[in-house]
From TrEMBL:
<keyword id="KW-0808">Transferase</keyword>
<feature type="transmembrane region" description="Helical">
    <location>
        <begin position="249"/>
        <end position="271"/>
    </location>
</feature>
<feature type="region of interest" description="Disordered">
    <location>
        <begin position="279"/>
        <end position="334"/>
    </location>
</feature>
<feature type="compositionally biased region" description="Polar residues">
    <location>
        <begin position="296"/>
        <end position="305"/>
    </location>
</feature>
<feature type="binding site">
    <location>
        <position position="151"/>
    </location>
    <ligand>
        <name>a 1,2-diacyl-sn-glycero-3-phospho-(1'-sn-glycerol)</name>
    </ligand>
</feature>
<dbReference type="GO" id="GO:0008961">
    <property type="term" value="F:phosphatidylglycerol-prolipoprotein diacylglyceryl transferase activity"/>
</dbReference>
<feature type="transmembrane region" description="Helical">
    <location>
        <begin position="31"/>
        <end position="49"/>
    </location>
</feature>
<dbReference type="Pfam" id="PF01790">
    <property type="entry name" value="LGT"/>
</dbReference>
<feature type="transmembrane region" description="Helical">
    <location>
        <begin position="101"/>
        <end position="125"/>
    </location>
</feature>
<comment type="function">
    <text>Catalyzes the transfer of the diacylglyceryl group from phosphatidylglycerol to the sulfhydryl group of the N-terminal cysteine of a prolipoprotein, the first step in the formation of mature lipoproteins.</text>
</comment>
<keyword id="KW-0472">Membrane</keyword>
<dbReference type="GO" id="GO:0005886">
    <property type="term" value="C:plasma membrane"/>
</dbReference>
<keyword id="KW-0812">Transmembrane</keyword>
<comment type="pathway">
    <text>Protein modification; lipoprotein biosynthesis (diacylglyceryl transfer).</text>
</comment>
<comment type="similarity">
    <text>Belongs to the Lgt family.</text>
</comment>
<dbReference type="InterPro" id="IPR001640">
    <property type="entry name" value="Lgt"/>
</dbReference>
<dbReference type="GO" id="GO:0042158">
    <property type="term" value="P:lipoprotein biosynthetic process"/>
</dbReference>
């Protein structure tokens, strides 16, 4: 093996370098790679959710109508949550309060995005007639995929890394970075928590697709599994991060938020399993659907994540002509 190749392989094995740029200029417009990562994640989530909702029997691209409300409210909620949990960044003597709006510099919180996005999704579902829990289940794998893509933005921004480490995959952070802990030697490596979460979230996508198909999880149960999976991992990654955070009873605010999300997921799973042991009759709420206010439940392949519900057979009495105008029952709402 040549000395040059050996040096390259040694360098690769020794650490993970941080990107040399975090933005680029396109004419007079500055494009932040952090924003591109978030946009990429949103696009991936929309495409995956559309596929899953359409497979369930919803109108193609109805997800766009829901996303129009869910995405902006999710971003607003994410920023508000971050600002409220990091007040020292924005308020006080010498701070620039207008930095609250500098979202391109980083600083959005997934737990705030979940809260704001849930409100937007609920409003969008009321608007389109899609059942909220049907949408949530269809969204869950794509949401994890979006979060995996978004974490690369933290890498480009050189932020949210973990404790110092000597593992071969340690992350390089320039000592001139304001987030570099004082007192540490130049060249100190840190846990790449962004990468840990990318791997965890990607595995979570595969797990959700598998268990959703295996157990036919509906009525929000798959979304509950998402909350448990993501938040359990977040407790670990958040515990080794060293970026500033408010501490309550010895734990960072995001650790508390993750623990609360795990508990919420368990509650949703338990309640919905008791309330809805069967299958959803339609992706639409009663009286809503693709055609003339009626749910248009399409036949599904037996390998689908969802169970097919076909129109019940017509009853024909003696002397009465058969009609195809009988209303389709959606089985009721529980």
């Amino acid at each position: 093996m040549s000395l040059a190749l050996q040096n390259v392989l040694t360098g690769v094995a020794a650490s993970i370098p941080s990107p040399s740029i975090s933005y680029f200029d396109l004419g007079p417009v500055r494009i932040h790679i952090y924003a591109l990562c978030i946009i990429t994640g949103i696009i991936l989530a929309v495409f995956m959710t559309n596929y899953r909702l359409t497979k369930r029997g919803a109108e193609p691209w109805v997800v766009i109508d829901i996303a129009i409300l869910a995405v902006p409210l999710g971003i607003i909620g994410a920023r508000i949550f971050h600002v409220l949990t990091h007040p020292g960044f924005y308020f006080g003597e010498g701070k620039n309060i207008w930095a609250v709006f500098y979202i391109w510099e980083g600083g959005i919180a997934i737990f705030g995005a979940l809260l704001g996005g849930a409100v937007g999704a609920w409003l969008g579902c009321k608007w389109t007639g899609i059942r909220f829990w049907t949408f949530a289940d269809a969204l869950a794998p794509g949401l994890l995929l979006a979060q995996a893509a978004g974490r690369f933005g933290n890498w480009f921004n050189h932020e949210l890394f973990g404790l110092p480490t000597d593992v071969p995959w340690g992350l390089e952070i320039d000592s001139s970075n304001p987030a570099f802990p004082p007192g540490l030697a130049e060249g100190t490596l840190f846990h790449p928590t962004f990468l840990y979460e990318v791997i965890w979230n990607t595995l979570g996508v595969l797990f959700l697709l598998w268990i959703g198909r295996r157990l036919q999880l509906q009525w929000g149960k798959l979304f509950a599994v998402y909350l448990i999976w993501y938040s359990a991992g977040r407790v670990v990654w958040e515990s080794i991060r060293i970026d500033p955070s408010e501490i309550y009873f010895g734990l960072r605010t995001n650790v508390w938020a993750a623990l609360a999300s795990v508990a919420l997921g368990v509650i949703i799973l338990w309640v919905q399993t008791r309330r809805h042991p069967g299958r959803e009759p339609s992706p639409y709420m009663p009286g809503r659907g693709i055609h003339d206010g009626q749910a248009d439940v399409q036949s599904q392949d037996s390998t689908s994540d969802f169970v097919d519900v076909s129109e019940p057979p017509l009853e024909v009495t003696a002397g009465a002509p058969a009609t195809s105008d009988a209303p389709v029952s959606d089985g009721g709402t529980r």
